């Protein structure tokens, strides 16, 4: 599903990703941990083309992201992203936030998009909020809308960039529960997080980055947390 081959990333002279070799298969739930500034977010953002790579090869869903002929919109549609700061449309209702992408990009009609959106809002525990605007919601609720919006695009994988880092502690559990549900449904997920409980209980693989490099990559999550 996602393949990095000898990938390097520079921001100007700054070497942000060093010799990244990584293959993520369909259905894996990968958590990425490591000190701040170690390149976690950069790695994530290369996967859906928000950042380009400087060297090497990156294949996502059978497409080489360096190939100028590929449709980057298609890649962004196939690989959803959930951000720390939600990025909801402030002037649209919850329902419209979730239906907009499917209507504009997937060309769904209103009824179909709304049915899917209502099912997803129920799944994330926000069935009663469809007419609310983002400003009326808590951070945890906003993040659950963002997750529903991402799922509505029927992605093949979802990237999460510190999805709970901006939340008050009491909101974090609800968001992690939703992420766990999605993982159990077989979604391919790559999650940058400081939530070690999630990494341990939901993730089936853990990657530790430091200084732009992958220092550890373990599918024995229980063992990883022993030392
Ligand atoms: P930040 O500076 O962004 O807060 P941390 O240095 O706290 O990042 O590291 C993030 C997570 O990675 C922490 O929860 C920590 O437990 C884990 N971690 C840090 N160093 C190691 C290490 N050497 N081996 C395994 N896990 C580590
Ligand atoms: P992490 O997610 O582990 O905190 P990042 O991937 O956000 O790390 O950043 C890795 C390094 O790259 C940091 O030193 C950061 O300052 C630098 N960096 C990130 N984005 C940019 C950018 N757009 N331009 C220049 N440097 C950047």
TrEMBL record:
InterPro entries: AAA+_ATPase (IPR003593), ABC_ATPase_HisP-typ (IPR030679), ABC_transporter-like_ATP-bd (IPR003439), ABC_transporter-like_CS (IPR017871), MetN_ABC_transporter-like (IPR050086), P-loop_NTPase (IPR027417)
ABC transporter domain residues: 2-227
A Gene Ontology molecular function term of the record: ATP binding
SUPFAM superfamilies in UniProt: P-loop containing nucleoside triphosphate hydrolases (SSF52540)
Pfam families for the chain: ABC_tran
Family the UniProt entry places it in: Belongs to the ABC transporter superfamily.
Domain of life (superkingdom): Bacteria
Protein name (database record): ABC-type polar amino acid transport system, ATPase component
Record carries keyword Transport: yes
Keyword annotations of the record: ATP-binding, Nucleotide-binding, Transport
Gene3D superfamilies: P-loop containing nucleotide triphosphate hydrolases (3.40.50.300)
Organism: Lacticaseibacillus sharpeae JCM 1186 = DSM 20505
């Amino acid at each position: 599903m996602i393949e990095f081959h000898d990938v390097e990333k520079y921001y100007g002279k700054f070497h942000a990703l060093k010799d990244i070799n990584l293959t993520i298969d369909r259905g894996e739930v990968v958590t990425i941990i490591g000190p701040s500034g170690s390149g976690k977010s950069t790695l994530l953002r290369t996967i859906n083309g928000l950042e380009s790579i400087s060297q090497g090869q990156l294949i996502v869903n059978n497409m080489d992201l360096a190939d100028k002929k590929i449709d980057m919109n298609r890649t962004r549609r196939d690989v959803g992203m959930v951000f720390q700061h939600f990025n909801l449309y402030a002037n649209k209702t919850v329902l419209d936030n979730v239906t907009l992408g499917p209507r504009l990009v997937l060309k769904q009609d209103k009824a179909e998009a709304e049915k899917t959106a209502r099912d997803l809002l129920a799944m994330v525990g926000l069935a009663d909020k469809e007419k609310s605007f983002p400003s009326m919601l808590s951070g945890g609720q906003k993040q659950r809308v963002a997750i529903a919006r991402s799922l509505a695009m029927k992605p093949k994988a979802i990237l999460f960039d510190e999805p709970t880092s901006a939340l008050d502690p009491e909101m974090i559990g609800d968001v992690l529960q939703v992420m766990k549900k999605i993982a159990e449904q077989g979604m391919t997920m790559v999650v940058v997080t400081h939530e070690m409980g999630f990494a341990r209980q939901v993730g089936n693989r853990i990657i530790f980055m430091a200084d732009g490099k992958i220092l550890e990559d373990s599918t024995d999550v229980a063992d990883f947390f022993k030392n």
